[in-house]
Amino acid sequence: MKTITRTKIYLPIAGMILTAALALPAAAQTQAPFKGTFQGNVTISPPFVTQSITGIGTLVGQFSSTQVLATGPSGSTGTVTWIAANGDTIVTTEVGSGVFVDMAPCQVVGAEPGDTYRKSTQIYTITGGTGRFAGVQGSFTQTLYKDSRLSSDGTYHACGSYSGTITSPGAVR
Question: 118-132 b/e with 16+ CB inside 10 Å = b?
Fold first, then answer.
C-alpha cells in the first residue's frame, strides 16, 4: 500500500516540475510589438553608408543609432547597435536595398519642394543587447527616406519608421 501511495504522489509532482520546466523557455520567447519613428542624416562614402538617427519607439523610448553599412550591387549589410536614453542597447544585423520615390511620407528636415527621395527598406535581426535588453531576440523592418539632394553640411537628410517584434525585455532573465 505504501508503494501505491508514493507512486500517486511522485507522478503528479514530476508532471508539475516538467510542466514548469517546459513553460519557462516558452515565456522567454513571448514577442512584443517593436515600432517607432526617427530622423537623421545619411553620409555616403563608397563602399560605406553611415546613418546617424534619433527617434522614439516602443519599449526602447528615445534612442540613437549610428550605423555604418557596407554597400554593394545587392544592397547594404552591417551590424548595428541601437542605444536607449539610459544606455541600454539592442544589437542587430542588417540587410537592405533601396529605390527612388517621388515623396517621403514623413517630414525630412531641410527638404525643399520638388525634392525626390531614395526609399531604403532594411531588414534587422535582433541578436541581443545589454541592460534590460540582455538576451532579447526578434526582427523588424525599417523604411528610411533619404533626400536625394545633398545638404549644405555634406549629408542627406532622412526620416522613417520601423516595425516588427522583439522578445519581451527582461523575460530571458
Answer: bbbebbbebeebbeb
Domain boundaries, the chain: 32-167
pLDDT tens digits, 29-86: 689 999 999 999 999 999 999 999 999 999 999 999 999 999 888 889 999 999 999 9
- The residues, ordered by sequence, that sit 6+ positions from 106 with a Cβ below 8 Å of its Cβ are 37, 39, 145, 159, 160, 161
User: Is the pTM higher than 0.85?
Assistant: no
For 99-125, write each residue's pLDDT tens digit: 878 777 787 777 777 788 889 999 999
76: burial class by Cβ within 10 Å (0-12, 13-18, 19+)? buried
